[in-house]
Amino acid sequence: MRKLKIGITCYPTVGGSGVVATELGKMLAKEGHEIHFITSSIPFRLEKFYSNIHFHEVEVNQYSVFRYPPYDLTLASKMAEIAKREDLDLLHVHYAVPHAICAYLAKQMVGEHLKIVTTLHGTDITVLGYDPSLSELIKFGIEQSDSVTAVSNSLIEQTKDLLDTDKEIDCVYNFIDEDVYQRKSTCDLRKEYGISREDKVIIHVSNYRSVKRVPDVVRTFHRVREQMPSKLLLVGDGPELTVACRLTKELGIEDDVLFLGKQDNIAELFSISDLKLLLSEKESFGLVLLEAMACGVPVIGTNIGGIPEVIDEGRTGYICEVGNLDDITTKALSILQDDELHAKMSKEAIHHVHRQFNSSKIVEEYLTVYHKTLGIK
Ligand code: GMT
């Protein structure tokens, strides 16, 4: 099969969409395709050297005549420049706004042969789609793309409802790097954090935006802690972290809540955890659920967005209604108090990720989308 030349644009900072875009680029490069990241900074997971991965920085100049730096226009022009110079087959952009719009502009400059594949990750639809001043633009970006994928079936439904579009959208689930996300031996880590042998460890990882409902995580932990010795690991940073911090003080549980901030070695932290909570009110997929399950951690997530497509209810964890802390606590205790159930779920979680969200299978699905878009049989 012909090797492709692919331009990838994503938000390169920490965040599930950037992680998936970068891992996809790396895996495609391993298969011999030529990858060009066209982003505002080097994607943070692109740590080592690959001879067929190139990075093109989008540098926005601050001319005094511009009140706002023209990032979108600079990106579009960079996309066009790289597509022409490197003879790219397609641009794979993550997020409709602004990236699909920039790709559309680039295509106008380069010509019809340059194809656009857009992947929807959620925030542009679940948040921006409700903003009437942007929804027409998002719809335009989607409809002008040659192919569109979304990370869950729920996101496809929501996109179609919200934007009233009948554009064909393929569901391609997220995946993780199985070499990174696996249970690690972490003999000293619990000790370093002052976690005793009896303590059960609950973990939450996010960007602490209000949609993540972090106070629900803290309150659930408070209830669990009343029943058994336990610790809560809060990993990541964001606007709601101060709210969580204040709440732990109000509840008098600050000694048992560890604020770890942004961390690189999340697999190690999952490996000392007994349960992962993701209690969001919006979540198109929930990549952290995959990361946790791959490390053998049972999960509890809310019944919204793509979460029910990720958790195998009753086997790898539980799905509860948003804000139903009674049910969430009961389910958490049922996992934490029953070693046999915990071991079973932990094993099943690893199998589930490898079976349903296998990286080779997902990369193959993206290649099928590329081939279809380019008319390659
Ligand atoms: O959740 C966020 O705020 C970050 C955002 C992102 O751009 O990474 O996450 C979205 O994309 C991820 C990767 O596909 C999904 O796992 C997240 O569920 C999705 N977030 C939302 O839908 C809120």
TrEMBL record:
Domain of life: Bacteria
Domain annotation Glycosyltransferase subfamily 4-like N-terminal: ranges: 14-179
Positions of the Glycosyl transferase family domain: 189-350
InterPro entries for this protein: Glyco_trans_1, Glyco_trans_4-like_N, Glycosyltransferase_grp1, Thiol_BshA
Alphabetical list of Gene3D superfamilies matching this protein: Glycogen Phosphorylase B
Matching SUPFAM superfamilies: UDP-Glycosyltransferase/glycogen phosphorylase (SSF53756)
Name this polypeptide is given: N-acetyl-alpha-D-glucosaminyl L-malate synthase BshA
Species whose genome carries this gene: Pseudalkalibacillus berkeleyi
Phylogenetic placement of the source organism: Bacteria, Bacillati, Bacillota, Bacilli, Bacillales
